[in-house]
């Protein structure tokens, strides 16, 4: 494993994506860059590479600290990367914005009632 691991396998092993196929799709849609470059899923990830990952809900910028092509526990997966300070600050700011400014329809479960629609129209 000292040479490198396929990018899609590493993303799956580090638990950024639930399946390898989701990781491949994200790489193909340019949601993952390695050292600022667009890459393919078969690209080899090496120690020290900087990855920018957009998994749909969060955006991460991480340094590769370990290599694995086997999906293990979350504690083991957390040792495979180290998040940069800029990324930590950005994710905290986004989480705070989500907490303070909720989407209007998030509290409605299922189809909105007439009362729910009136409340949405007020906004």
Q: Tell me, briefly, the overall form.
A: elongated
Order of strands side by side in the largest beta sheet?
3-2-5-6-7
Number of helices: 5
Largest sheet: 5 strands, antiparallel
Radius of gyration: 18 Å
Helix content: 25-40%
Strand content: 15-25%
First-residue to last-residue Cα separation: 55 Å
Pattern of helices and strands: EHHEEEEEHEHH
User: Low-confidence runs (pLDDT<50, min 5 residues)?
Assistant: none
Tell me the total number of β-strands.
7
Mean pLDDT: 89
Sheet/helix structural class: alpha+beta
Kindly summarize this structure in a few lines.
The chain has five helices and seven strands; from the N terminus they run E-H-H-E-E-E-E-E-H-E-H-H. By secondary structure, the protein is an alpha+beta fold.
Describe the protein's architecture and organization.
The protein is of the alpha+beta class and 123 residues long. It is 37% helix and 19% strand. β5 and β6 form a beta hairpin. α1 packs across α2. It is elongated. This is RNA-binding S4 domain-containing protein. It comes from Duganella levis. Belongs to the HSP15 family.
């Amino acid at each position: 494993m000292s040479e490198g691991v396929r990018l899609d396998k590493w993303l799956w092993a580090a638990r950024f994506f639930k399946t390898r196929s989701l990781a491949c799709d994200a790489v193909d849609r340019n949601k993952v860059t390695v050292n600022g470059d667009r890459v393919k899923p078969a690209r080899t990830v090496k120690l020290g590479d900087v990855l920018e990952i957009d998994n749909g809900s969060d955006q991460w910028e991480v340094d590769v600290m370990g290599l694995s092509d086997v999906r293990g526990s979350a504690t083991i997966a957390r040792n495979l990367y180290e998040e940069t300070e800029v990324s930590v600050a950005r994710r905290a700011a986004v989480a705070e914005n989500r907490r303070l400014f909720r989407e209007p329809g998030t509290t409605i479960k299922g189809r909105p009632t007439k009362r729910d629609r009136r409340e949405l129209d007020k906004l």
